[in-house]
Structures are given as C-alpha cells and as structure tokens.
C-alpha cells in the first residue's frame, strides 16, 4: 500500500446525523441495526482472522475498524486488505470503543432484561451478508457514495 492511496472512511465520533422520513439517524444507530440484520443470517466476520479471510476472498461488503487498537500493524493490514486492487474495494467505518463494537457484533451475553453482560472487545468486524434490506443500510451506503 503506497502512501498516496486514498482510504475512504467514515469516523463515527463526529456524530453524523442523516435525516430520513421517520426522523434522524446517526451512524451508530445504523451500524447497530445493520449488525443485527447481518448477525441473523450469519453475515459477520468478527476478529482479525475471520475479517482477513473475508476481505482476502472478496466477500467483504463493509469493514468496521476500532481506533482503540494498539497495534499499528493490525490497522495497516486491515486497510491494505480493504484496498486490494484484484478484489473489490471495501469501505471502512471507524468507531472509538472496542467494547461497544463487540456488543454490536454479538460478542456478549445478554441477561434476562436484555442488557449486555461479559462484553468482549472487538477490533474489526466485516459485513459479508447484509441480511434484510433496511433504511439504515441505505443510509450507510449513501455516506460512501457522496
């Protein structure tokens, strides 16, 4: 990967709000819904090993990467796999909290009230199958088409 290549990213910390017919959606809400839909059809690759397999085989649709990762090689690897020329380009969304990303990706135990317990942090999640169509999916895709 050269220093002049452009990586298209959306950083969630900036609180981008998108107005839709029902009200406003932010990127975090869109990611939660899209992850739930993808998880229902086994469409998530969670962690470096699964994510790298999905990205190198061309199955990746969207990559969500955590900024709190302490290994710069990890981030470089994921960015390089997302920008491969022989495989389709995969857009990257960055989030700040690994625990929150792990909770969204289903790496937790839910108690009786539906609250997340024993959340495992996750540095990278790749969506391989979107599942059901939703306005949240279209909202995320429209962020990258601009």
UniProtKB/TrEMBL annotation:
Q: InterPro entries in the record, alphabetically?
A: Ribosomal_eL30-like_sf, Ribosomal_eL8/eL30/eS12/Gad45, Ribosomal_eS12
Q: Report keywords, A-Z.
A: Ribonucleoprotein, Ribosomal protein
Q: Which SUPFAM superfamilies match?
A: L30e-like (SSF55315)
Q: Which GO terms describe its cellular component?
A: cytosolic small ribosomal subunit
Report which superkingdom the organism of origin falls in. Answer: Eukaryota
Does the entry feature the keyword Ribosomal protein, yes or no? yes
Q: Name one GO molecular function term.
A: structural constituent of ribosome
Coiled coil ranges? none
GO terms, biological process: maintenance of translational fidelity; maturation of SSU-rRNA; ribosomal small subunit assembly
Pfam families given for it?
Answer: Ribosomal_L7Ae
Q: Which family does it belong to?
A: Belongs to the eukaryotic ribosomal protein eS12 family.
- What's the name of the protein? 40S ribosomal protein S12
Tell me which species this is from: Tortispora caseinolytica NRRL Y-17796
